[in-house]
């Protein structure tokens, strides 16, 4: 089992390679924002197809099979590239055999996360359409009120439903292991997925039930003209609904264990691990690879979380947009892993990340300038003797 991390700008795009009975299998987790499919994901998938043909695993006209696609949550920087992939498969299908085939999709639609009745991921008609239209209409309003996180989430809802429509048209099974319902973490019981042992650490059912209750109350008030986007934001315990609902996976095969986190909150991951009896502050859960949540944002990470899930290898997927990864997150990691050799993998060179972070900082904090010595990622990482930093060559 190997994890391949593709450059995905401000988003995530991961390929999980493994074998089952000598048969190579492939899982794609997130597709990055606009442009990532064309620049990174499609070229790599085409390379893998050529390799499979050269090995005799598939014929020259056969597609590369992606056994499972997992969309960790609805947000453009995770879902856009998957939409582009589905569009590409559909377009090729009209002229010749597509280069790629997708067998299964794991995806939690917004409605399935807040629906108190069925939780059906593929429910697209009736009340669902009305809710989507209503939420889409208030996205600009939310941004005006200063609720940028909520505005981005609401704007992404339609993307999620477009993805479901694409998947249905292509005959891709949607959440088949969960009977078409929302993916929820109930316990530490593992799922056997093509020879992999996968445990869910999020989203937890208890958290989603609270989310559903709050959303139902807000929707009722909204229909009476008594609620605003700001009140919706306030009704959620986390300032980003998408991050609260991120699918968090603990993947194991033989002696390897990967923690794949989407944009989850570290405290929620810790609570889930403790509730399911997998880890505690006094009994950490060691992993080989820890995909750092939310592109290394300091809002989603802490020294306590890194200490509960000590890893050999930490993956930071982000190019500096929204100032992610934050320097503070690397400081948390240094505290948690003091004295231990730690591999830090970045999807972009530290200096390039700091260029973008500086631009982001100066947009928000004019006339205060970005100070590389005290705020830069590159200077901090260069001083950490226990960190082994890996990244692509400078652009």
From TrEMBL:
It comes from the Bacteria. This is MBL fold metallo-hydrolase. PANTHER family: DNA INTERNALIZATION/COMPETENCE PROTEIN COMEC/REC2 (PTHR30619), RECOMBINATION PROTEIN 2 (PTHR30619:SF1).
